[in-house]
Specification:
B: Rossmann fold; 2 domains; six-stranded mixed beta sheet; C: alpha/beta; Rossmann fold; globular
């Protein structure tokens, strides 16, 4: 087994053990907390469905961040790209209300990809042409994206029948169906999951076998070599941010077209940012991303039950667990050395 | 691999070992009540705090077993409501209009469970809708503002520009005009999205600007952004009026009163009815007559409003008696 | 206090390979010892084990006859060992004296630094003028030779009796090397033990007293330099005799390949700029201390940086990288690890960089074609990788460089070759192969531009040499005019007649 998988799994258990220890200090029984988490996430088909529902946008935002990482770029802007992608989905779903599903969904998803991608490409362009660091620009573009989204949600596509900050409901042809009951129970888990998994398979193929993935990775991992081979790094950067942003835009499909059937303000729930953790924990690999997204999805669902079934800890423990896992992975060099000392 | 599996096994063993020693949860025959709060959480010093207070009071006095969940985002309402229902909670309370969709979806799936929702209408045989006559209370504090204002200029600062807050504004404006037909009402909203509830800086800025234009008393309905209004009032030695909970003590002497929206009473009542087996579905409105809407008098403002108290109580009686018709934004705009 | 350092049957095994295999050497005090070996022979590992950075697997280290187990570098330092790394570990933005004092501060009772006291101590400790450097100068303003002296001073200030110097002359000009040797002799005469890690035979003969050869982790021989023959030492290092480098160089009369006029990049080159030309069938060398404008020249020619003036290759003005590549330019860049190799990837992949289109069908890579073709190139250029699927980072420096040659020369069929420091960190066997290839290319009528800081290499291969000093051409020599002293003078800016 490759060393890094090993280290990741160890990090996982260290993160979990530390969090459970914390729960113990707070007066909970760690075994109980653990069981609540597991039961909450996998206890019934509906619970599994919710775990999958939470994992679905994470798969895509994780994929988005991973794609940029392959090209040596750190896309902190997935949340903003996703937000705009979601607004685009809602907008087309309202404007072209009566389209049949066969036309509606491809159209909407393409549009979300283009809008999210365009937003990402903007950061890519600023990096390629003006040398602005993408971490900075994507963070700042997030704020602009939120502002734009507010404008469209509240002023242009506002739902007249609700007090909440949300758009009107999209047409029936735009609504992505729920997964069959035997998988997702009565949860809102929907077919976007299948789309996400397909895209992850395609991602693996592109990165491993095609010239597109090859040049993206070459430009990212060995930019000086690429430049000397005549590769246009700037173009690769813009392309990478376009695709990364597009994938983030698609991450909006599940919450917008599969769950609420409208774009609510703040519908991303920070999924774009958690995508960073997913991509890092999954080490950019297709299987790793699936694993990390499912783990985080399950944790989110499992943790909801903590509020009900424990006395001293709340669902925030899940955030603590996620943070500790990421920290453990991030410090894996140190851990690995420790490991070597222990075992040698 | 060997060592790895050891770690895994040890972690699991430790977890399960602890489980065995866990004391078995006692089976109780108390009434179980699930409470799902809106995003502000139980410490928002306003709306959610009120609901939590009411439920806690019910727990203490009626001996029910209360479980509270704070929702991080819109997607979490539904699983939270569902989890309570699945666990056999006979009564589940959903606080805030943001939960309307979730209750609409979950309630029909659990017909044996009773749901109650505050501030949003859901029509279902097992759902009780708890609404408040915010306009009545706003009229009352508007009347007070009209009496108190020496410059004949009063201000209103709303949080997010939505129908609910327009309802406050409209009632308030009518109250002001009733007290002093010549008075003007200056109206500002903090914003159009949900961050408008949590922007005290902007609240203060708007309040200072209103005071500069001659306004000498401001009513806010802006959640945490209203805290900025109180700061501005203290700075300019002017007056402000609080909302939802009793906020008189935040700047003693500068807060004329607070319009109370007694979510705690509504929540308490619903739990009490359930305990007595008298849960009634349908929409119920709390207003001045049942003290669901009120204005706050305590040691911080007693002296300040003493000269107006008699007049205010007279107005209150007239509203209850229907002698004064307070305009309601909801019915006027045919919303909800 | 003088220390004798000894290793007895010292071995170090890593997970999959034996880096040191029962090495037994003795380093007597008051002498300069050369530790010789090709890249990957185990020199670095030996130093790290001696210095306490790795624990030995078996065997022992003796200091002054007494068995000693290092547990950390700190302990090694406290026992009087000191090491100057190939890459300096100085704080560029601090003064010389602060660099020397870091970690060994001379302080008053209250913890206030006493610099003047430290300087007095230093000057007392070292009655050697050669070592004097301006104490208050910032390190970033020093020449490379001076920085090296600061590194040595750091060690002496910590009472080091045994000094390890890892390839210390790689970064120095010929004149600086001479000064450095004088310094080494002084240190030796003060009773210290000097251990020089190197692969340059010339240095060994010039300054060392003994030589110790490592090959594939084994100690092959340890002997006195006096009376030793260079060829024997080389044979001990590479395990075979090195054939003489006598490659026929028939005159090839070619037309102009590369012509630059008043080329200037940023502020690296002063007015009037570089006017150079390279004919077909000619190897033109650029000599000069590193940082004299060579890297900027290469970048400009490769279309990586904008420049003033003109640069024409085969009568076409150079514009951007893909156009330059399209003209048939092969590049062996200066920094192999950063500029030539995709370290995360396999040897196969590394051999198709820049040549991808030949291996694509519908934008999908044809694996079989890649593996078949590149394996043939690897064979032609003697790339020794156990498995070409292994990451290129796992190859030795020499094999990596041969792989770069295989790609750039074997894969591209170039018309013009730019080689920048092609033999840095490359073992002798590989150097020989690469040199032969370059002359072969010349004989086939290709133009070759060879930039190197190793004067010997240029003298051996070039038809003509330009010398750079401070971004300018300070001299031009045809093969008939080659003269080490004059070229060396031009490198330091002294114009030759």
């Amino acid at each position: 087994m490759p060393k890094h998988i090993y280290v990741t799994i160890v990090s996982l258990f260290i993160g979990l053990a530390l969090s459970l220890t914390l729960a113990t200090i707070l007066g909970e029984n760690p075994g109980h907390v653990f069981l609540v988490l597991v039961r909450g996430a996998f206890g019934s088909a509906t619970d599994v469905g919710y775990s999958l529902f939470y994992a679905t946008p994470l798969l895509l935002s994780g994929l988005s961040v991973a794609w940029a990482l392959q090209a040596g770029l750190f896309n902190i802007g997935a949340d903003g790209q996703m937000t705009l992608g979601g607004v685009a989905l809602a907008a087309i779903g309202i404007l072209a209300h009566d389209l049949p599903m066969l036309v509606a969904l491809p159209l909407a998803l393409t549009l979300a990809f283009l809008v999210g991608g365009g937003w990402g490409a903007l950061a890519g362009w600023m990096k390629a042409r003006r040398g602005c660091h993408e971490v900075l620009t994507t963070i700042l573009l997030n704020f602009i994206a939120y502002g734009l989204a507010s404008f469209f949600i509240l002023r242009v596509f506002k739902n007249p029948e609700s007090q909440g900050p949300e758009t009107a409901v999209v047409g029936g042809g735009f609504q992505i169906g729920a997964l069959p009951q035997w998988i997702g129970g009565t949860s809102p888990a929907n077919w976007t999951l299948a789309l996400a998994l397909c895209l992850i398979v395609i991602y693996g193929f592109i990165m491993g076998r095609t010239s597109l993935g090859y040049f993206q990775r070459l430009a990212g991992e060995a930019p000086q070599v690429a430049a000397r081979a005549g590769v246009n790094i700037g173009r690769q950067t813009i392309l990478a941010m376009f695709i990364s942003g597009g994938l983030a835009g698609l991450a909006a499909a599940s919450p917008v077209l599969g769950f609420a059937f409208k774009a609510r303000e703040g519908f991303t729930s920070g999924v774009g940012f958690i995508g960073i953790a997913v991509a890092l924990l999954g080490r950019k690999s297709p299987l790793g991303i699936v694993f990390a997204a499912l783990l985080f999805g399950a944790l989110t669902k499992g943790a909801l039950e903590l509020d009900m079934d424990t006395r001293f800890v709340s669902r925030d423990l899940a955030t603590v667990i996620q943070a500790l896992i990421v920290l453990a992975v991030a410090s894996q060099v140190g851990l690995h050395n420790l490991w070597r000392k222990v075992t040698s | 691999m060997n060592k790895l599996s050891k770690i895994v096994i040890l972690t699991l063993l430790w977890s399960t070992a602890c489980t065995k020693s866990a004391p078995q949860a006692q089976e109780s025959h108390k009434l179980k009540v699930g409470l799902v709060l809106d995003k502000g959480g139980k410490d928002d010093k306003s709306f959610n705090s009120g609901a939590f207070r009411g439920a806690t009071k019910a727990a203490d006095e009626l001996g029910i077993e209360l479980k509270m969940v704070e929702s991080p985002d819109d997607a979490a309402f539904e699983p939270a409501l569902r989890s309570f229902a699945e666990r056999g909670y006979p009564l589940v309370l959903a606080i805030g209009f943001a939960q309307v969709d979730a209750v609409k979806k979950v309630a029909p799936q659990f017909p044996a469970t009773h749901f109650a929702i505050v501030d949003g209408v859901v029509e279902s045989p097992n759902v009780s809708t708890l609404m408040f006559a915010e306009h009545e209370g706003s009229y009352l504090v508007g009347y007070l503002a009209g009496l108190m204002s020496k410059s004949a200029k009063v201000g209103f600062i709303g949080g997010m520009d939505i129908a609910l807050i327009r309802r406050f504004e409209m009632g308030f404006g009518a109250g002001v005009k009733a007290a002093n037909p010549k008075a003007e009402v200056d109206v500002n909203y903090v914003g159009v999205n949900s961050t408008a509830w949590v922007n005290p800086g902007r609240g203060k800025e708007l309040a200072l600007s209103q005071y500069s234009r001659g306004v000498d008393i401001i009513f806010h309905a802006a959640g945490a952004s209203g805290l900025g209004v109180f700061d501005a009032a203290a700075e300019r030695q002017a007056y402000a009026i609080g909302v939802d909970s009793n906020q008189n003590g935040l700047k003693p002497g500068r807060v004329a009163t607070s319009m109370l929206k007694r979510v705690d009473i509504a929540v308490y009542d619903v739990i009490k009815e359930q305990a007595a087996g008298k849960f009634t579905p349908g929409t119920r409105s709390f207003g001045l007559k049942d003290n669901g809407i009120d204005y706050a008098v305590d040691e911080n403002n007693e002296k300040l409003i003493a000269p107006y108290k008699v007049k205010l109580d007279e107005i209150r009686k007239k509203i209850i008696a229907g002698e004064i018709k307070v305009p309601d934004f909801y019915t006027l705009k045919k919303m909800n | 206090m003088s220390l004798q350092l000894e290793t007895v049957g010292l071995s170090k095994t890593f997970a999959h390979c034996t880096a040191l295999d029962r090495v037994s050497f003795r380093f007597a005090p008051g002498r300069i010892h050369a530790v010789l070996g090709e890249n990957g022979a185990g020199k670095s590992t030996l130093m790290k084990v001696l210095f306490g950075l790795y624990p030995p697997t078996s065997g022992e280290i003796r200091v002054g006859g007494e068995k000693f187990e290092w547990r950390s570098a700190r302990e090694a330092i406290s026992r009087g060992l000191g090491m100057v790394q190939q890459h300096f570990t100085l704080l560029e933005n601090s003064t010389v004296i602060d660099n020397i004092l870091v970690g060994a501060e001379v302080c008053s009772a209250l913890g206030v630094l006493r610099r003047s006291e430290a300087i007095a101590q230093l000057e007392e400790l070292l009655p050697m003028r050669h070592l004097s450097v301006p104490w208050d100068a910032l390190v970033r303003d020093l020449s490379i030779g001076q920085k090296q002296r600061v590194e040595i001073l750091k060690l002496l200030f910590r009472q080091a009796q045994v000094l390890f110097l890892d390839e210390p002359t790689a970064v120095l000009t010929p004149i600086e090397i001479e000064e450095f040797f004088v310094l080494l002799r002084k240190l030796r005469d003060s009773g210290r033990t000097i251990i020089l890690i190197t692969h340059k035979i010339g240095e060994v003969l010039a300054v060392c007293d003994t030589y110790s050869v490592l090959r594939q982790g084994r100690s092959i021989v340890q002997g006195e330099v006096k009376g030793a023959v260079a060829a024997e030492i080389v044979e001990a290092m590479i395990g075979r005799t090195m054939p003489d480098f006598a490659v026929a160089r028939p005159a090839v009369h070619g037309q102009a390949a590369l012509v630059t006029r008043e080329l200037r990049v940023g502020d690296a080159h002063a007015e009037p700029g570089l006017s150079l030309h390279v004919q077909r069938g000619e190897i033109v060398g650029i000599a000069g201390v590193e940082g004299s404008g060579q890297s900027e020249l290469v970048d400009a020619l490769m279309g990586l940086r904008e420049f003033h003036g003109s640069a024409r290759l085969f009568d076409e003005e150079l514009q951007n990288t893909s156009q330059v590549r399209g003209l048939g330019v092969a590049l062996v860049p200066e920094d192999r690890l950063a500029q030539a190799l995709w370290l995360e990837e396999s040897c196969y992949t590394n051999m198709i960089i820049g040549l991808e289109s030949a291996f694509l069908k519908h934008n999908i890579f044809k694996r079989a074609a890649i593996e078949g073709t590149t394996a043939a190139w690897a064979k032609e250029f003697d790339v020794r990788a156990g498995d070409l699927l292994a990451p290129v980072a796992s190859l030795s420096g020499g094999n990596q460089q041969k792989l770069v040659f295989a790609r750039e020369v074997g894969g591209r069929a170039p018309r013009f070759v730019i080689c920048h420091q092609p033999t840095r960190g490359v073992d002798l066997g590989a150097i020989d192969l690469l040199h032969r290839k370059l002359v072969e290319l010349r004989n086939q009528g290709l133009g070759v531009l060879l930039l190197s800081s190793e004067l010997d290499e240029l003298l051996k291969l070039c038809d003509r040499i330009y010398v750079f000093y401070d971004g300018q051409v300070s001299g031009e020599f045809t093969r008939a005019q080659f003269n080490r002293a004059q070229i060396g003078a031009a490198m330091t800016g002294v114009a030759h007649a």
